[in-house]
Write a structure and sequence with these properties.
This protein has 428 residues and is α/β, with parallel strands linked by helices. The chain folds into 2 domains: 10-30 and 315-419, Aspartate Aminotransferase, domain 1; 51-313, Type I PLP-dependent aspartate aminotransferase-like (Major domain) (Aspartate Aminotransferase, domain 2, 3-Layer(aba) Sandwich). It is built from 15 helices and 13 strands. The chain has helices at 10-19, 48-64, 68-71, 79-91, 104-115, 133-145, 150-153, 167-172, 196-205, 225-228, 272-275, 298-314, 316-338, 365-374, 398-413, and strands spanning 36-37, 98-100, 124-128, 154-157, 178-184, 209-213, 232-235, 250-253, 344-345, 358-361, 377-378, 380-382, 386-389. Helix 1 runs antiparallel to helix 15 and helix 5 runs parallel beside helix 6 (133-145). The chain is globular. The model has no long low-confidence stretch (mean pLDDT 97). It binds pyridoxal-5'-phosphate. The site of pyridoxal-5'-phosphate has 12 residues, from helix 5 and helix 6. Residues 103-105, 132, 134-135, 184, 188, 213, 215-216, 236 line the site of pyridoxal-5'-phosphate.
């Protein structure tokens, strides 16, 4: 541990910032004026490189019209594959196993439509009670399309305490009736990292396929999907990858699954050399790109060119190292400064189990968040009583964390949160 036993002071935060090799990247981002932004796990901030990439894309449309498909600096026709190639190192995958397409929800639908083939014996899907609702809605609707009901065919793993999952409990449910396991790499509330390698190895011993939702893990923790032998993964790019609101999502298909007939087919899943033959029988691409559907959302993908170039330059190892220091720093400060105010920190302490954010609970959480925002600290509230803070390696500093916790202490000491009602806003 970094700060064992020492009383943490502002000068320690400043010293850590001076020693921090990644501190200079903060200047590459637009940080909303007057704020300490700690919500990068809901919506990452705009970088200058992303802005530039989007403007370049607009310029190519302006100058080239239709010819942008082949003549733009990053030709639109190949953009999804190009972004897949840039994303692959973040998750330990080969370029052709990754494609930029769709959204988290749509990509999960596509994985299920293509690879979930229930039969009389194997027809169940393992999920957990802590997953994000959209994943569960998608899975239930896919079961319905197969005429299967969720009460019988969805195996819902109970958590230990409403916050953490035990991998042993998950493995214990891996029977021969289970076709697929679908879990998050990092849980969206507690930030627990699931042991993806252990889950995958255990599932494969039982002939079960594994898909991971990487929404909260991509860009915040390291992955070795190929080495772990994961079957499928899917994610959004507007959280730690800073792609912008609604930016295009991503899909990983292990190469051993290439060549399957896409469940939801469309012409952009074609072999590119055949696509414009415009035949009514599709010649599918023999890589992850086969799972694309229609024309890519070029303008919603463009910012990723800029953002991923930062990840390429810095590398996940350094990002993860700083992220762990920031979350440890924050954990210690919460203990040191807020111990009188009955916050309960639900985040795993162990570094190997801790993702890129901190999750604390308090019965006044909704109005504490409103008061924090009024004081320039941007957290995010999770009903009924949770607060998430994501100190992001690329644009937050140790001083940000120090200042945010001091503001929080003041709000609690002076009971400033009582100026607000304790309920959630429409988006929270
Ligand atoms: C953010 C998030 C999503 C979002 O799905 P979209 O299709 O991008 O709206 C899904 N699952 C998890 C676990 C998430 O954290």
């Amino acid at each position: 541990m970094l700060f064992d036993g020492e009383l943490i002071t502002k000068s320690i935060a400043e010293k850590l910032d001076q020693q921090d090799e990644l501190n200079k990247y903060r200047n590459e981002f637009y940080i909303p004026k007057g704020s300490i932004y700690l919500d990068g796990n809901s919506l990452g901030l705009l970088s200058k490189r992303s802005e530039e990439a989007l403007l370049v894309m607009l310029e190519s449309w302006k100058k080239l019209g239709i010819d942008g498909w082949t003549e733009a600096e990053e030709p639109w026709f190949h953009l999804s594959e190009r972004l897949g190639e840039m994303t692959a190192p973040l998750i330990g995958a080969k370029a052709e196993e990754v494609i930029s397409t769709g959204s988290t929800t749509m990509n999960l639908h596509q994985i299920l439509a293509t690879y979930f083939k229930p039969d009389a014996k194997r027809n169940k899907i393992i999920v957990d009670e802590l997953n994000f609702p959209t994943d569960i809605y998608a899975i239930k609707s896919q079961l319905r399309l197969h005429g299967l009901n969720s009460e019988e065919h969805l195996v819902n793993i109970k958590s230990l305490n409403g916050h953490l999952l035990s991998e042993e409990d998950i493995v214990a449910q891996m029977t021969e009736e289970v076709a697929m396991v679908i879990l998050s790499g990092v849980l969206y509330r507690s930030g627990q990292i699931i042991d993806m390698e252990y889950i995958t190895k255990s599932a494969h011993k039982q002939g079960i396929l594994v898909a991971f939702d990487l929404c909260h893990s991509i860009g915040s923790v390291e992955h070795e999907l190929d080495k772990w032998d994961v079957d499928f993964a899917f994610w959004c790019t507007y959280k730690h990858l800073n792609g912008g609101p609604g930016s295009v999502g991503g899909l990983y298909i292990n190469e051993r699954h290439f060549g399957a007939e896409p469940g939801l087919a469309g012409w952009f899943g074609s072999d590119k050399s055949k696509q414009f033959d415009l035949e009514h029988s599709m010649t599918r691409a023999m890589h992850a790109g086969a799972l694309q559907t229609g024309t890519p959302h070029v303008l919603s993908a463009a910012p990723l060119l800029g953002s991923l170039s930062i990840f390429e330059e810095v590398g996940m190892k350094r990002i993860r190292e700083k992220s762990l220091q920031l979350t440890e720093f924050m954990t210690k400060l919460i203990d040191q400064e807020l111990h009188n105010f009955s916050f309960v920190n639900r985040t795993p302490i162990e570094p190997s189990k801790r993702g890129g954010h901190i999750f604390v609970e308090h019965k006044e959480a909704a109005r504490i968040c409103k008061s924090l925002k009024e004081h320039g600290v941007i957290p995010d509230f999770r009903a009924p009583n949770g607060i998430r803070f994501a100190p992001v390696a690329l644009y937050n500093s140790f001083t940000d964390v120090w200042d945010a916790i001091q503001i929080m202490k003041e709000i609690m000491t002076e009971e400033k949160f009582k100026h607000f009602e304790n309920n959630r806003d429409v988006i929270a």
